[in-house]
Fold this protein.
Amino acid sequence: MEFLINNGSFGLLIWQVFLVLNIIFWIFCMVDVLRNSFAGNDKFIWILVLLFLPIIGSFLYFFIGRRKRLILD
């Protein structure tokens, strides 16, 4: 373990874990957008936001967009 901390590989490991978690979160948000209904062109807009702003767009969708979904029984 000491070898990892001395040559900077530990920092690289943290970035890789962050990247993998971010990709999983992005995929979750994209699937959620595609599986749900939205009013008007909101679905298309959320897909564009997620494609062009993957990190920020995922958090925006999770905190804002999920409340805008149409709940169909």
In short: The mean pLDDT is 88. The radius of gyration is 17 Å. The chain is about 75% helix and 0% strand.
